[in-house]
Design goal:
Blueprint lengths: L1 H14 L18 E5 L28 E20 L9 E6 L1 E6 L1 E3 L2 H11 L4 E6 L4 E3 L6 E21 L6 E23 L1
Parallel strand pairs: 1-3
Antiparallel strand pairs: 2-8, 3-7, 4-6, 5-9, 8-9
Length: about 200
């Protein structure tokens, strides 16, 4: 009888006590190992604050009635990932970066060639000409504390080329006149992410 009561007491005791005392929640990092980052600011490679990007809607082609623009022979040239900017200005050692303010904005498609070529690509792509990104407050990126690092913003682009044309509809019978504008090459932003880079 005494033995069974002792066993029951042991079971109850173990059940109310953490068996693994060294376990901790992943969210309980040492505050000294975290760098809080203002995600609304971006810096160049020298730590200089970059201006806030503005819309490039100025100077767009406004087609006349009976005029359209097309891109023929569109070819996909592959994808590329580019370091767009840094989110921290200086090299530091830390275990984690966390956003204290969100990292949001828009990126525009990059077009090679004249302003006319750029505007043709913008008209043809429509809403796909711009890409919206957003990283919310509290977003956390792990880093190697033994190395100097910065938090950086990377963008993935899809690359294309094609032949740009102006199309004029000359009458009500569907007669058209196509005028070649030139070869267009462009890179459209399709994805982005924050990551750590090391010195």
């Amino acid at each position: 009888m005494f033995a069974s009561m002792l066993a029951l007491a042991l079971v109850l005791s173990v059940g109310s006590t953490p068996v693994f005392a060294n376990q901790s929640s992943p969210s309980q990092e040492n505050p000294k190992d975290i760098i809080w980052v203002d995600g609304s600011k971006q810096y160049d490679e020298n730590g200089k604050l970059l201006p806030t990007p503005t819309s490039d809607g100025k100077g767009s082609i406004q087609p006349y009635a009976g005029t359209a623009y097309r891109i023929k022979n569109q070819t996909f040239l592959g994808s590329t990932i580019k370091l767009d900017s840094y989110i921290t200005a200086s090299w530091q050692k830390t275990s984690y970066y966390k956003l204290s303010r969100s990292h949001t904005g828009k990126l525009s498609t990059k077009v090679e060639g004249s302003s006319t070529i750029k505007n043709v690509v913008k008209l043809v792509l429509g809403a796909d000409f711009t890409y919206s990104y957003s990283e919310s407050v509290g977003t956390e990126i792990e880093a190697d504390k033994s190395k100097f690092s910065k938090l950086a913003y990377f963008v993935e682009y899809d690359k294309y080329k094609g032949d740009a044309y102006r199309v004029d509809y000359e009458d009500d019978f569907g007669t058209v006149k196509e005028t070649s504008i030139g070869t267009a090459k462009w890179e459209t932003p399709v994805d982005s992410y924050l990551d750590v880079v090391y010195k």
